[in-house]
Specification:
The complex is a heterodimer of chains A (113) and B (112).
Chain A lengths: L3 E2 L4 E5 L4 E7 L6 E7 L6 E7 L4 E4 L2 E6 L4 E6 L8 E8 L8 E2 L3 E6 L1
Parallel strand pairs in A: 2-11
Antiparallel strand pairs in A: 1-3, 3-8, 4-5, 4-9, 6-7, 7-8, 9-10, 9-11
Chain B lengths: L4 E3 L2 E4 L5 E6 L6 E7 L6 E7 L2 E5 L6 E5 L5 E5 L8 E8 L7 E2 L3 E5 L1
Parallel strand pairs in B: 2-11
Antiparallel strand pairs in B: 1-3, 3-8, 4-5, 4-9, 5-6, 7-8, 9-10, 9-11
Classes of the chains: A mainly beta (113), B mainly beta (112).
Chain lengths: 113, 112
């Protein structure tokens, strides 16, 4: 049972344009959502997070949107840069303590120069 | 400030053998979690250690065990290795409370 789903295994975007990565979840207990970026041979690097009390969180070129009623979140990267080419993982957990993270299967983003 | 460090980076073991992977958490962090990432999949939670005790466990068999030391570092042990245990093993550290987890670079385990 995949509780966090990233239905697009890959995405290609022209440099300078907007990249939109999507994530859906099924577990109503999830209250805190994170995006991680992973390069080959490296561990995941934390990018941005959002609590369910918000519907938007912005950090520089990265913005995460949360639609709790639809159980959907998205990561917007604008403008996209070649260094953004990586695998992006959506993760979720209940918003208390140090509960485990449940990850999606990832989306490979390729930025075309 | 060193981040999360894991050793070794790569390891090849034979089916049936035992393996120990090590993790040092980020400075100031007291909680260590272990994840297994199979090829083409997202990381899957194995277990979490806090105050030298296993606090949470994912859906992994008892062949997977761990330990946390007083300095917060941690070990992951896998007994009776199977070919399907081949994966990237990730350690993540955090502080108790509502904080983000920081990951190490992982240990690539290959079972032959």
């Amino acid at each position: 049972d995949q509780q966090v789903k990233q239905n697009s295994p890959s995405l290609s975007v022209q440099e300078g344009r907007i990249s939109i990565l999507n994530c859906d979840y099924t577990n109503s207990m999830f209250d805190y959502f994170l995006w991680y970026k992973k390069y080959p041979a490296e561990g995941p690097t934390f990018l941005i997070s959002i609590s369910s009390i918000k519907d938007k969180n912005e950090d520089g070129r990265f913005t995460v949107f949360l639609n709790k009623s639809a159980k959907h979140l998205s990561l917007h990267i604008v403008p996209s840069q070649p260094g953004d080419s990586a695998v992006y993982f959506c993760a979720a957990r209940p918003n208390f303590g140090n509960e485990k993270l449940t990850f999606g299967t990832g989306t490979r983003l390729t930025i075309i120069p | 400030d060193a981040g999360v460090t894991q050793s070794p980076t790569h390891l090849i073991k034979t089916r049936g053998q035992q393996v120990t992977l090590r993790c040092s958490p980020k400075s100031g962090h007291d909680t260590v979690s272990w994840y297994q990432q199979a090829l083409g999949q997202g990381p899957q939670f194995i277990f979490q250690y806090y105050e030298e005790e296993e606090r949470q466990r994912g859906n992994f068999p008892d062949r997977f065990s761990g330990h946390q030391f007083p300095n917060y570092s941690s070990e992951l042990n896998v007994n009776a290795l199977l070919l399907g245990d081949s994966a990237l093993y990730l350690c993540a550290s955090s502080r108790q409370g509502n904080t983000e987890a920081f990951f190490g670079q992982g240990t690539r385990l290959t079972v032959v």
